[in-house]
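User: Can you predict the 3D structure of MFS transporter? Sequence below.
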Amino acid sequence: MQDFFSWLGKTLGEIIRFVVDLLLVFFQNLGASARGFFDGLATSLGIPPTLISLAVLLLGLWLLYLALRALLRRRIFATLIWAVLGVTVLSWLIY
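Assistant: Sure. Here are the predicted C-alpha cells for MFS transporter:
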C-alpha cells in the first residue's frame, strides 16, 4: 500500500513540475515575442523603442481614430481638430 502512495505522490509531483515548466516557457516566449514586435515596429517607424514612445504612438493613433469617428458622424469641424491633433502628436514622435 505504501508503494502505491509513493508512486502516486511521485507522479503527481512530476505532473505539477511539467505544468510549471510549460507555463514558464510559455511566458518567457510571450515576453520575447512582444519585445521583438515592439522593436520591429519602432525600427520601421524610426522611433526609439521605449515605453514613452509607445504611449505617444498610441495617443496619436487614438486621436486619429477620434477623427475618423467624427468624420463618420459628419462632424467636419471636429474631424479637422482631431486629425490635426493626431498628426501633430505623431509628427513629434516620427522625425
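The helical segments are 2-45, 51-72, 76-93. The CA atoms of residues 70 and 78 lie 6 Å apart.
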